[in-house]
Amino acid sequence: MFSLVQLECFVAVAEELHFGAAAERLRITQPPLSRQIQLLERELGALLFNRTSRRVEMTAAGQSLLPSARRVLDLAAKMAVDVRRVASGAAGTLTVAYTAMAAQSALPLFIRRAAEDMPDVTLVLRELVTTDQMDQLVKGTVDLGLLRPLVARPGILTRQIMSERMVAAIPAHSHLAVPTGPISLLEFDHERLLMYSPTEARYFHDLLLRLFAASGSQPVVIQYASQVPALLALVQAGLGLTLVPESAQRFAPEGVVFRDLDSTSPTDRLNIVHLDVAWSEESANPVVAKAVEMLSRPETTEE
């Protein structure tokens, strides 16, 4: 099979119609150039040039080969550029999993930054709860996860990228929705509580247990759900109250009132939720490192 070097030599001679000029263009001596042309002609079984002491002319076979040779060389050059871009993380595909709340906070900023800094990277987005994200990261079917901190998994690296506070989400017709200003967790005592799933939303489930235990409040759990939007829908229906990250106010349904939690309470030190980016330390995707750096950059006022 002929080589790219042979095609490059052929195109140079075909365009210069002079072996000396073609050799100078390729920065080689004339004998190796002539040798490459002979090898190509032998491989193809056709004479590509008519040579005399005064001139070089392409044969019909050479004229037929020239357009295809140019396309092959152009394709090879583009392929090399594409491979280098993928290897450097400037191009490729990145599969990003995210929680429903991350879709309202970290994800939009990341998508904007990726469009600006990695325009040739294709993002594949998948909404998954944190536990499912961890499973997919271990399997290698997800490159990055935007998730809540959980017990560490071997081989999975994490970095905190965001923190916020929890706020109370209350049905608009509730007596607790009328006052303005912060609300104490003690006011949840014996109220109907919409709770996070202990399996699919363990991070928030355990956080609420700690908050209410520390405050001495004992609300009555009447329903479990795994995602914040589902809990807000239940609040909207008037079934009870819950606590959600403050960023949930960005997509609040009608009929839901939000109140900050009392920051003067001793339990306030517990009122913080984190969002992490997670990835496999064995990931072979070169885009991952660049994406993690992008997610770790603080948000500026311009953004």
From TrEMBL:
<keyword id="KW-0804">Transcription</keyword>
<dbReference type="GO" id="GO:0003700">
    <property type="term" value="F:DNA-binding transcription factor activity"/>
</dbReference>
<comment type="similarity">
    <text>Belongs to the LysR transcriptional regulatory family.</text>
</comment>
<dbReference type="InterPro" id="IPR036390">
    <property type="entry name" value="WH_DNA-bd_sf"/>
</dbReference>
<dbReference type="Pfam" id="PF03466">
    <property type="entry name" value="LysR_substrate"/>
</dbReference>
<dbReference type="Pfam" id="PF00126">
    <property type="entry name" value="HTH_1"/>
</dbReference>
<dbReference type="InterPro" id="IPR036388">
    <property type="entry name" value="WH-like_DNA-bd_sf"/>
</dbReference>
<dbReference type="GO" id="GO:0003677">
    <property type="term" value="F:DNA binding"/>
</dbReference>
<dbReference type="InterPro" id="IPR005119">
    <property type="entry name" value="LysR_subst-bd"/>
</dbReference>
<keyword id="KW-0238">DNA-binding</keyword>
<keyword id="KW-0805">Transcription regulation</keyword>
<dbReference type="GO" id="GO:0032993">
    <property type="term" value="C:protein-DNA complex"/>
</dbReference>
<protein>
    <submittedName>
        <fullName>LysR family transcriptional regulator</fullName>
    </submittedName>
</protein>
<dbReference type="InterPro" id="IPR000847">
    <property type="entry name" value="LysR_HTH_N"/>
</dbReference>
